[in-house]
Structures are given as C-alpha cells and as structure tokens.
Amino acid sequence: MTRFPAADGLRALAALAVVVSQVGLHTDAPFAAAVSRLDVGWAVFCALSGFLLYRPHVLAWFSGTLPPLTLPYLRNRALRILPALVLTAVLSIAFVPHPATRYLQWAAQTPLLFYLLLPGLGRLLTGYERPTRRSVRWRLLVLLALTVLGPVWMAAVTATGQSAAALWLPGYLGWFAVGMGLALWQVARATGRLGASTLDTLTRVPGTLWGIAAALILIAATPLAGPYDHSTPTPAQALLKNLVYTAVVACVLFPVLTPTAATVRVLGGRPARYAAQLSYGVVAYQFVVLGVLHGPFAVQLPVALVASVAIAAISYRLIERPALRLGRRLENTAATKTDTKAISPSSSPAR
C-alpha cells in the first residue's frame, strides 16, 4: 500500500480538533475541560508526519534501494510548509494586536526542525545492517524508547522552570516516533519481516482503539493532566498529559494502516481528501482569525471555522498548490537530466 486514504480524514479531524481547542482557549469557555484537550490534534499531526515521511526510508531499506534524496526532500518540504507559514506570520503581524508568536515559535522549533533532522534520523535507523526480523525489532525498541523522551522532557523543563524549552522538539519527539514506529511495523508486516500478532486483530476493530483513545482523552480532561490554559502545570501533570497524548495518537493512527472498508468510506472519500489538503492552512490561519475575533464560544467557533477554511482554500489554490507543482516540475526535470546522462553516448561503455 503506497497511499493511506483514511489518513486524509484523520488529518482533517485533527485540524478541526485544534481549531475547537484554540477557540475554547481564546474565549475561556465554561466547558474548557471538554474542549481544551482537543489540542491532542497537534499530536495527531506530528504522528502522521512521522509516519508518512519516515516510511519511504523504510521502503528503501527493505528493497535495498537508495533512500530519498535529501535536497529534493527538503525542497518539497519547504515548498509545502513555508508559504503558508510566512503568510501567517505577515498577516499576524499586520492585523493581530498580539501576534501568534507562540505558534510560530513552536512551528519553527518543532515540525521544521524534525523535517530537517529526518533524513539523518532515517539513515541512522535504517542503515548498517540488513532488514532482518531481529534488526526490525531492535529499531522498534529504539523508537519506543523515543516515545518516553517527550513526557520526561516536559516534566524536566517544568521542574526546572524552563518554560520556553517546552516548545522544543524533544518534548514532542515521542509523537513523531509513534508514527515512525507504525511506519516500520506496517512495512515489516506487509513484507513478512514480522509475523502475525495480536496487533493484526486490532486493525480489524478500529472502534475499539478509537474508544480507548476517547477514554484516554477523558482522563486527560481531568485536573490530573494540568490546567486548561497556558498556566504552568506541575511536573507530574506535564508528564501525564504528554504520555496520554502519545497513547492517544497510537490508538488513533493504528487503524488507518490497514483500514477496513467502512473506515475508508468514512475517512477516505473525496471530501476528506480535499479537507486534508486544506488542513495545514486551516490550522495556521485560524490563529490570525482568532486574533481579530471577539465574543462567546458559540459565536467565535463557526466564524473561526468558516473564515479559516475560506482563507486556507484561497491560499491553497493561489499559493500552496502552485508551489507544490513547482516542486514536481523541478523533480521531473532533475529525473529527466539523470536519465539523459544515463543513456548518453559518453556514458556508454567503449567498444
């Protein structure tokens, strides 16, 4: 399987969850506990990125081919991420009394840094030996260990009063590692490197895993996971929240790896695919929209959703999609030049 259609709907739902949580935070909604923990959508985005971006490295490792080239990969990431991010920064500075600096700092220090490190991390975790069952299990254990880094980091920076460090990559690396681990498991299972297990049964009962995820979010909605705003949590609260979110994204993402027909119908249709294309823009531009909105939660939520989707649709059509097309043209041009050199007379063996 080269495409995971159910991931589109999951990405769209993650964007919706983020917007709802941010509106609740912006309006001090009386039911803050019910909506603030929907910021788990950030964790879902991280896990999806880890899965989709690390999987090509795993496929190359298993097939014995070269891993994705670093420069084309970085170029494509830049063309996908930076246009909307830069426009968000410009609009925020121009129209928002208090620009969304926290989001911009997080975006620059976490997703962008992960994208920069992924080529090296991918080579580190897929090189040096053949993809045997033992080597696959060892790497799964490494990625499992990385999932513990996030909660420990959050607890440590909270205990030492280093609140700015809570925006750094180590605090969120566990969420990316969940996606990377699932990418490795999915390819290893599909190619027979790993045998059948109980995990295969779980993929056929997505409702069970999603129910567990919902129960975990309810646990996170209690004071055990800390305050419902940007107030500083205790170290134990910071650790628990990050750890619970890690478990939630594992439960949410796992069923889309080998989705049932019903899962594909619900999460993988054309509307979901279009919504997924806009999801990044919706999450970015909603900070600008909320910066100029006033009123209660019931008013701000629909306005924020409609305005963010509208701006994201315009941005995608006029800026992001042309940028992606440029990336594909550059990639095709580079591939054509490579093929031409490969068949040119000067590269042919002498007779």
From TrEMBL:
GO biological process, any: lipopolysaccharide biosynthetic process
Residues spanning the membrane: 42-66, 78-97, 103-126, 138-159, 165-185, 205-224, 244-267, 274-293, 299-319
Record InterPro entries: Acyltransferase_3
Superkingdom to which the source organism belongs: Bacteria
Keywords recorded for this protein, A-Z: Membrane, Transmembrane, Transmembrane helix
GO cellular component labels: membrane
Protein's UniProt keywords contain Membrane: yes
The protein's name in its UniProt record: Peptidoglycan/LPS O-acetylase OafA/YrhL
